[in-house]
Design brief:
transducer; Chemokine_CXCR_1/2; C-C chemokine binding; mainly alpha; membrane; three-stranded mixed beta sheet; about 5% strand; Rhopdopsin 7-helix transmembrane proteins; about 350 residues
């Protein structure tokens, strides 16, 4: 029989990865009656993101797999990034329904769906870090031969998936379906009693290796890469890098606020900043909003490729022309020179 807990309303709004304490019934929780996101609005957003992500990332996977001859190292990383977003998108209908119905799917599915979310985030930022290193070596040090060894890239991608799973392992141990007095069952962490120290250690490890370290790598690599491009006046190479810069920027805009909120919450739990009910309430509200922003990211990369990635549009039109969906005359009228999209040291499939 599930143990009953009393929690604030904002804990339900945050739904998952909000590490606010689950308070036993014999304790006195903070009383909170403030604003939170409307559950029907969140459900609609999750549903829209699901359809866009499923369609867009499926097209990205199709285009990269189809374009075998011109597939670069960066393309392989972007392929894995699309697969990660695609897998996460499959969980969104369940999270959308749970916003309205409550968590009616049991502990096993709670663990699995939460695992998908964490693996998506960690694999995403680790893959982007690898892309930054690849571009840094290719442009700053001009080591094309090293960056184009595809068999190494496959092992690196396998290592990223394994590391992402390891960083997400705590979800399998601590995520459960809880019965709450007001809301029924929810999918939430159960760390038990007097485990604040263990919780903080796990969070700091995941944030350090799964967020801070990859972010530092990206800032270092792209800082020197951009400086080299501008100093050498590499106009064509700079244009080829626009898609990668856009992908990284959008990832940070979507996930950086969420992780900064978690870092702030960690400081609160370690009492490096004063722990008060009002500050917990603000953090819980921030998690509600930034979590939705993070989920939105899974559908944005294909939109970037479609609007900025000339090579992606050209490759997609070639697939349509090969299957008779559009005519070759239409492809020619697009006035896209296939030679301008040939794979180079800085080209990507997008």
């Amino acid at each position: 029989m599930a143990e009953k807990y009393i929690v604030s309303e904002e804990i339900w709004g945050a739904e998952f990865d909000n590490y606010t304490d689950i308070i036993p019934t014999d304790a006195a929780p903070c009383t909170q009656h403030s604003w939170r996101l409307d559950k029907y609005f969140v459900m609609v957003v999750y549903s829209l993101v699901f359809f866009l992500s499923l369609l867009g990332n499926s097209l990205v996977v199709l285009v990269i797999l189809y374009n075998r001859l011109n597939r670069s190292v960066t393309d392989i990383y972007l392929l894995n990034l699309a697969i990660a977003d695609l897998l996460f998108a499959l969980s969104l209908p369940i999270w959308a329904a749970s916003k309205v119905q409550g968590w009616i799917y049991g502990t096993t599915l709670c663990k699995f769906i939460s695992l998908l979310k964490d693996v998506n985030f960690y694999s995403g930022i680790l893959l982007l870090a690898c892309i930054s290193v690849d571009r840094y070596l290719a442009i700053v040090h001009a080591t094309r031969a090293l960056t184009q060894k595809r068999h190494w890239v496959k092992f690196i991608c396998m290592g990223i998936w394994v590391l992402s799973l390891l960083l997400s392992i705590p979800i399998l141990f601590f995520r459960e379906a809880f019965l709450l007095d007001v809301y029924g069952y929810v999918c939430y962490e159960n760390f038990g009693k007097n485990t604040e120290k263990g919780r903080l250690v796990l969070r700091m490890l995941s944030q350090s290796f799964g967020f801070v370290l990859p972010l530092v790598v990206m800032l270092f690599c792209y800082g020197f890469t951009m400086r080299t491009l501008f100093e050498a006046h590499m106009g064509q190479k700079h244009r080829a890098m626009r898609v990668i810069f856009a992908v990284v920027l959008v990832f940070l805009l979507c996930w950086l606020p969420y992780n900064l909120v978690l870092v702030t919450d960690t400081l609160l739990r370690t009492h490096l900043i004063e722990d008060t009910c009002s500050r917990r309430e603000v953090i819980e509200q921030a998690i509600n909003v930034t979590e939705v922003l993070g989920f939105l990211h899974s559908c944005l990369n294909p939109i970037i490729y479609a609007f900025i990635g000339h090579k992606f549009r050209h490759s997609f039109l070639k697939i349509l022309a090969a299957h008779g969906i559009v005519s070759k005359d239409f492809l020619a009228r697009c006035n896209i020179s296939s030679s301008s999209f040939a794979s180079s040291s800085v080209s990507t499939a997008v």
